[in-house]
Amino acid sequence: MSDKGRILLLENIHPGAMENLENAGFEVDLLSKALGEEDLVREIADCVAVGLRSKTQITPKVLEAATSLRAVGAFCIGTNQIALDEANRIGIPVFNAPFSNTRSVAELVIAEIVFLSRRMGDRVRQMHDGVWRKSATGSHEVRGKTLGIIGYGHIGRQVGVLAEAMGLHVIFHDIASQLPMGNNAPSADLDDLLARADFVTLHVPATPQTAWMIGEAEIAKMKQGAYLLNLARGNVVVIEALADALRSGHLAGAAVDVYPAEPKTNDEPFESALKGLDNVILSPHIGGSTIEAQVAIGQEVSHKLIRYLEAGTTSGAVNFPEADLPVRPGVQRIQHVHRNVPGVLGDVHRIAATHGANVIGQVLATDESLGYLLMDVAAGKGDGLINDIAGLATTVRARLLY
Q1: Which of 159, 223, 160 is nearest to 196 (CA)?
Q2: Separation between Cα atoms, residue 323 and residue 313, nearest integer Å
Q3: Is 119 part of any domain?
Q4: Which residues contact residue 64 at a Cβ distance below 8 angstroms, ignoring those fewer than 6 apart?
Q5: Which CATH number do you get for residue 83?
Q6: What are 174-208's pLDDT values in tens digits?
Q7: 128 within domain boundaries
Q8: Is the predicted pLDDT of residue 1 greater than 70, yes or no?
Q9: What is the mean predicted confidence (pLDDT) over 213-225?
Q10: Are 288 and 104 in contact (CB under 8 A)?
Q11: Do 336 and 373 touch, CB atoms closer than 8 A?
């Protein structure tokens, strides 16, 4: 094993990530599949980091077994598959790639808006079945129509820019105040957006506030003949309510990429109340699945892992205080994760003074439960400090990085 430790990458993460980590001196194992809890417990036992996508579950049991684990990399946007609170409690930061597949998702949304308005899904299926149905009935241009974007973050804004370039009027709703792009305009509220939009597309995170936020009542407020697109999270739309609205003709079509329950492997069957309905585009959670996005995600998350494991940088962590201290020559760096209670920094400084260690630089960041300290001391002093700092009653983790 490499002196720097072993890293396990799961779910066919792009090989560029493996190359970056190996070039940094880590031993890397790359697997094409997800692992269940018991298999993961065995595989992760000696790993300093693990990388995964959406199917592998990092449970409290996995974290408890991974005694060498120092970081988790989610090579995707979502982190619902990771026990974030438990990871925080034991001092393990989790890193993801919140922006790397933005363009891929946005482009698919635009393509699906055009496909829905021209009923292309039905026409393609009919042609493969040998049915020639040349008709303009139910087909429309998207120019001049109104697109309503629910969730105006990075993806939502990119969708808005592309849609406006195609001649759509764009309105949006977000719980936070957002700067509009181009001529995109905020709606008065969610009900206003639902009532005005010809196309409604969802780009919200998975939170308690967004769970099942589009149900029977919300769909009823949408325009007759409107279209609904969900490429966000599977638990945002009540699928049965959407299916009812499509069968009744209240909605003219839908595009869905994410589902409340999804097959864990490509060998498992897919079941949904939306199967077989007219003008419904169903895709297997591929909104961000382009080669370009996977390359970008592999680069972003692997570099975040390297910066943390080598220098202690937690910028971009989703469950951890964010701290970054520039690397400088002639020092040793101490990494100290501790309970966020008064007096810890004073205790560390007293230890440093006892050892005659001059503090060259430091940064402290905190959240509700944890404090995270990076401290550079004069070369030769770190080895004597680290054991005493690790012995503090408030310490969660302490490590001499270099």
Answers
A1: 223
A2: 6
A3: no
A4: none
A5: 3.40.50.720
A6: 999 999 999 999 999 999 999 999 999 999 998 99
A7: no
A8: no
A9: 98
A10: yes
A11: yes
The answer to whether position 125 is within a domain reads: no
So which residues are the catalytic ones? 233, 262, 285
* Same domain for 325 and 314: no
Residue 133 lies in a domain: no
Q: Are 86 and 63 in contact (CB under 8 A)?
A: yes
- Angle of helix 102-117 versus helix 291-311 axis, rounded to 10: 160
The pLDDT value recorded for residue 264 is 80
**Contact yes or no for 274/251 (Cβ under 8 A):** no
Which residues span the domain enclosing 346?
Answer: 321-395
Return the structure tokens found at 194.
């639902």
Kindly state the DSSP code that residue 180 receives in the 8-state scheme. Answer: P
pTM for this one? 0.84
Residue 338: CB atoms within 10 A of its CB come to 24
Q: Predicted confidence band at 88 (pLDDT cuts at 50, 70, 90)?
A: very high
Q: Which tokens sit at 260?
A: 């409340």
Per the CB < 8 A criterion, the answer to whether 279 and 243 are in contact is no
Both tokens assigned to 348: 């560390």
- The rounded distance, in Å, linking the Cα atoms of 12 and 7 is 14
Cβ(339)–Cβ(394) below 8 Å:
yes
